[in-house]
Amino acid sequence: GRDGVIQCRPAFELYAELCRRYSPERVEELTWIPAAQIRETARLMASSGPVSLFTWAGVEQHSNSSQNSRAIALLYALTGSFDAKGGNVLFTKLPTADVTGSGMMAEKQKQKTLGLGQRPLGPEAANGWITTDSLYRAILEHEPYAVKGMVSFGCNILMSHSDGARGAKALDALEFMVHADMFMSPTAAHADIVLPVNTPWERDGMRTDFSVSQEASGHVQFRAAMVTARGESRSDAWIAFALAKHLGYAELFWHGDIDAGYRALLEPSGVDLDELRNNPGGIKVPLQTSYRKYAGNGGDAPGFNTPSKKVEIYSETLLRHGYAALPDFVEPGMGVADKSKIAEHYPLILTSAKSPQYLGSQGRAVPALRRIEPQPRIEIHPETAAARGIRDGARVALKTPHGELRMSARFSPNLHPNVVVAVHGWWQGNRALSLAGYDPLSAEGANLNAAFANETIDPIGGAAPHKCYACQVTALD
Prior knowledge:
Layout: H1 11-20, H2 24-31, H3 35-47, H4 57-60, H5 65-78, H6 107-110, H7 123-127, H8 132-141, E1 149-153, H9 157-160, H10 164-173, E2 176-181, E3 193-196, E4 205-207, H11 214-217, E5 219-223, H12 236-246, H13 258-266, H14 273-277, E6 283-284, H15 316-320, H16 342-345, E7 348-352, H17 367-370, E8 377-380, H18 382-386, E9 395-399, E10 404-411, E11 419-422, E12 469-475
Parallel strand pairs: 1-2, 2-3, 7-11, 8-10
Antiparallel strand pairs: 4-5, 5-6, 7-12, 8-11, 9-10, 9-12
Helix pairs in contact: 2-3, 8-10
């Protein structure tokens, strides 16, 4: 350089050095996955060409989820799998209009997004989304400002988000709350006004992208209401449009005409709403897939949505905001900031999973589903259960550093002995089967998310560690 030698190293070399610190043997110590299996997987990926990758909450709900996801994405990019035939392909989509109104908010107003100061690169910045942790803080502590009212649509946050007791306290502290839902859920019970929403079969619906393949991405379907709406229930869209009209925004909401909104959405595609109505099976629009679109087609390569337009192994953006530039491993927070006594009192690792019978906190009142899975269960290895005097099917207490609940034990020899698995969403009773409901905020209840707190959420994205928490399981009978 002008003033002498500049010390620097290539980003790939830095990352390679970091990766060398994690030999299969060390990874086995950290994860309990056999080193031989890790090597076998690496050879399989290296020799198979493009591979498909699918992750969801299993990767996302950890105290280091953003960097974990980034490490996976870098591996995926380095294998040449991204947007390649046989890999994860960005299918060509039907052009539609953006009717979200996202461009209408002033920048000054966007800066008021709760949590943006703590997570300037998180979903708060990218989408204007907030976490319930930030919402509860604003309501209870007035940080960064006081939130006094809320309108919510359907989300049963006391059952679906962490720290249920704090959430209930926050909802009760609001001056005014409106909740729109199909059921009187534990969250709805805290509202001043509950608006009845009809079921999907009682209202029209439209979808322009069914995602799973190129053919599905080009499929458009309008599904008319199948039955008459019961009582005074209305669709979410009807409620939103009516509220907009009363607030003086009728012109921005097509004067309350939902069909006009559908037509505006479809306008760039050339698909006609009336034609869709006359073809209840939907319309297939022929779209072609192109691969490796980041490389361009002979002209300037469009690249990626990064400052350099390249895959950034070493992220200057993360570094500028105080985060690690390379996705290093971070020991899971396990639910408490001070881990010195965690093994003594909470030696097991709690993870959560979805039930194949239910959707989140819904469906327990449906007899056909409840007969298959009538009670909240926690899966546990037989050896782990035997050491605690727990019988298969017996009632147990699940305790974390933050809370306690009751479930039934179910033996699962496929689990690691140090891991237990539970399902969230248990509150609803079932009259047809004479099954009582569960108090969502009581230690005698079964609300898994009441046992999770927010001390160790992911610093970049704000995810709560629902997939890795410290716990203990003890026999009740």
